[in-house]
Amino acid sequence: MTPEAMNAMFESITGDTLDTTTENTLLNEVKDDIESEDTWEILKTLDESQSVNTGDTYLTMKSLPSDFALPVDDGIYVGTDIIPYLPIPYVNRIQFQSVQHRYYIDYASGKYAIMGSPNPGGTIHFFYHKFSPTLVPGTSQNPGTPWIFPARFHPIIPYRMAMKFFAIDQQEKARSWDDRWELFAAKIYQNMRGWNSRLVREAAQNKNLDVDFSTHPNVVNMDGRGNGLYG
């Protein structure tokens, strides 16, 4: 469904409308709510716009992607290094400043930094969970871009918009509310969670295969997540 089709469905099931700005704000508020409620596989993505350079320190900050929502486990690799960089708390950055294969995020500034002196340096391969683009309704001649999720799940947005409609429009609940909206939305959400769980399981089947680091430079007694001693 396009964004304008979602708004049209919302108007149809409520039998009412909101002003354009409020309706579009509600549309994207509901979208962001859903995307924040789980770690959806479909929202994983890769940023390679940053790099590690000679002279970088634990205070050399890199910008997070503009659509960044959450980090992914084992989500950062540098250059040709196949050992993942693991996150540490921001408050431990001084303690870990010289430790290899670690990074921290400064959420307040929208930046992150790589710890130690990565060897080799190069491009930062940063896997993360994103928020999808803002839904912008278009016209019949120039439709808006549909939500990133499979189309079979799209009606959850109009149903959830309707569930919030009473509080926003302040109409009589008897006229503007239908309990079935909540049931319809819950069923779609259940299907979304089941679909996502299957994606996670399928992706994880091969994740725990052993990786031989015995020939990897500057590594001693390290497991596949980068835990161990560093040479």
The number of distinct β-strands equals 10
Shape: elongated
- Reading the helices and strands in chain order gives HHEEEEEEEEHHHEE
Quaternary organisation of the protein chains: single chain
* Whole-number tally of structural domains: 2
| Mean pLDDT over all positions | 86
Radius of gyration in whole Å, from Cα?
A: 23 Å
Alpha plus pi helix count? 5
Structural class: alpha+beta
Distance between the termini: 54 Å
Strand share of the residues?
Answer: 15-25%
How would you characterize the largest beta sheet? Answer: 4 strands, antiparallel
Which range best describes the helical content: under 10%, 10-25%, 25-40%, 40-55%, 55-70% or over 70%? Answer: 25-40%
Describe this structure in words.
The protein is of the alpha+beta class and 231 residues long. The protein folds into 2 domains: 3-40 and 149-202, no CATH class; 43-130. The chain is 32% helix and 20% strand. The protein is built from 5 helices and 10 strands. The protein has helices at residues 3-14, 20-36, 156-169, 173-176, 179-204, and strands at 44-47, 51-52, 62-63, 68-78, 86-87, 102-106, 111-114, 122-130, 219-222, 228-230. Strands 1, 2, 4 and 8 form a 4-stranded antiparallel beta sheet that branches. A 4-stranded mixed beta sheet has the order 3-7-6-5, with no helix packed on it. A two-stranded antiparallel sheet has the order 9-10. β9 and β10 (228-230) form a beta hairpin.
